[in-house]
Here is the input.
Amino acid sequence: MGKLGDMAAKAKAMAKGHPDQADKGVAGAERAVDQRTGGKYDAQTDKAADAVRRSYRDGGPTRH
Here is the structure.
């Protein structure tokens, strides 16, 4: 696995160990994108944030 893959695996492991903190980071990133784009891609950022949350919560309930 390359460096990017290694970093992604480490980030996912950290997020699984600290899901509440990871949720805050995902929400902040989603908010930042929505602000920069004027909410133009809100549906897409919602979908992406939910996918990220599922990736470290193993398909459990997502928070918004």
Observations:
- The longest helix spans residues 19-36.
- The mean pLDDT is 89.
- The chain has one domain: 3-57.
- The CA atoms of residues 32 and 40 lie 12 Å apart.
